[in-house]
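re: ur question from earlier - yeah i can do the single chain one, its not a big deal. heres the input i used so u can compare w yours
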Amino acid sequence: MKTNNSPRYELSVTFAMTNDVYYNQWWPWVKANAYGWFNMEIVNPNTPSDITSLQRVRFITPLQYDKRGDNWLGVTVGLEMVPADVTSAP
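and the output i got, formated as tokens:
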């Protein structure tokens, strides 16, 4: 994969999950993988029920937390994305 001189875009995304998912699954994965490049399905904000593409992304900002209720958490983070780097998701 060649990414030199490829345009890159920055966007902010929010993940919502229960506290146990955050501490037992999501946070350990983020610490080990998310600040390096990985593939993520990107959802078009105009049609949030349709996954539109699989893109190569990496986290570039610290995590910001939003308590949404008992045992419910929102985590917002900035991403860097290389558009059209990965083919469309099936």
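The longest strand covers residues 72-82. not sure if urs matches, ping me
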